[in-house]
Amino acid sequence: MSIPGVPPPEIPDLTRAQDRISFVYLERCVIHRDANAITATDDRGVVHLPAATLSVLLLGPGTSITHQAMMLIADNGATAIWVGERGVRYYAHGRTLAKSSRILLAQAAAVSDRNRRLAVARAMYRMRFPGEDTGRLTMQQLRGKEGARVRRCYREHAQRTGITWAQRDYNPDDFASGDRINQALSAAHACLYGIVHAAIVAVGAAPGLGFVHTGHERSFVYDIADLYKAEITIPVAFDIAASDSADIGADTRRAVRDRIHQGTILDRCVRDIRNLLLTTPSGTIDDEWPDDDGTEDEVNLWNEDGTEVPAGLNHAYEVDF
């Protein structure tokens, strides 16, 4: 018996994660499907979005999405993330683009071994300080060095834009309670978190298995997002806060979108995730994890000696009862 409906596309036919549109934020509209496009309808009309090239769809308050639209998003490997007002709060997300668990297994192996976890964490900090030798610093020293870098970044952009800067101060439950710069930072970081989350899920990694951050369902999202804040979201937030914007949230999202498009951040994000997770403590790519795109639709069974055997077969003949 055949399954009704349009068959989903094959994984190799889909647009690669790093080549997709970074994100689209929608609110107060009805989201449906028209052929292979996602449609968003409100009292101003209908907008068509190409599902095959979409990375993440941020669904804000007042959105209603149909079953057919979610099917199309899932079939095309995009991620739907339900968020709060202005995209600041995160509620749920969609599925992975990867079929293979290789990246996930490499991540789990690294985060479960103290030396490998330390190597990945140091590599993340090393990316913030190119040309500096951070290999002998403890995690406490690295955190202090990173804190000083972030404070310096805030101060430099405050001087550049003429904004009075005190500190990062915001209430995640009340976006409007913050001043202009803190509102802009919250909105910018929320967009970045959504994009990074989509990239992590797309390559088959786990958002909750962090190396620097820990104990949260999006620890790894915060790890990766921190690599790009000084370059993308912090300067964008100060630019918007210094402008005459009457809608900080919307203008910040558009500015982040433009900055990310200019910097091909999705390509860098996917590459950085793979390099961090597939690199051994000695600094070489682990040959155990082939450099493929994770699209093999293959399921095996595990042996206690670490080998694998094919699934989907009756293995009763292998043993005596």
Automatic annotation (TrEMBL):
Q: How does it assemble?
A: Homodimer, forms a heterotetramer with a Cas2 homodimer.
What cofactor does its activity depend on? Answer: Mg(2+); Mn(2+)
Superkingdom: Bacteria
- Signal peptide, first to last residue: none
- Single annotated GO MF: DNA binding
EC number in record: 3.1.-.-
**A Pfam family for this UniProt protein?**
Cas_Cas1
Quote the protein name from its UniProt record. CRISPR-associated endonuclease Cas1
* This protein's UniProt keywords: Antiviral defense, DNA-binding, Endonuclease, Hydrolase, Magnesium, Manganese, Metal-binding, Nuclease
Q: Where does Mn(2+) bind?
A: 146, 213, 226
- Its source organism is Mangrovihabitans endophyticus
Family classification: Belongs to the CRISPR-associated endonuclease Cas1 family.
Q: Which GO terms describe its biological process?
A: defense response to virus; maintenance of CRISPR repeat elements
> What does this chain do?
CRISPR (clustered regularly interspaced short palindromic repeat), is an adaptive immune system that provides protection against mobile genetic elements (viruses, transposable elements and conjugative plasmids). CRISPR clusters contain spacers, sequences complementary to antecedent mobile elements, and target invading nucleic acids. CRISPR clusters are transcribed and processed into CRISPR RNA (crRNA). Acts as a dsDNA endonuclease. Involved in the integration of spacer DNA into the CRISPR cassette.
InterPro entries cross-referenced by the UniProt entry: Cas1, Cas1_I-E, CRISPR-assoc_Cas1, CRISPR-assoc_Cas1_C, CRISPR-assoc_Cas1_ECOLI, CRISPR-assoc_Cas1_N
The UniProt entry, under CDD domains, shows:
Cas1_I-E
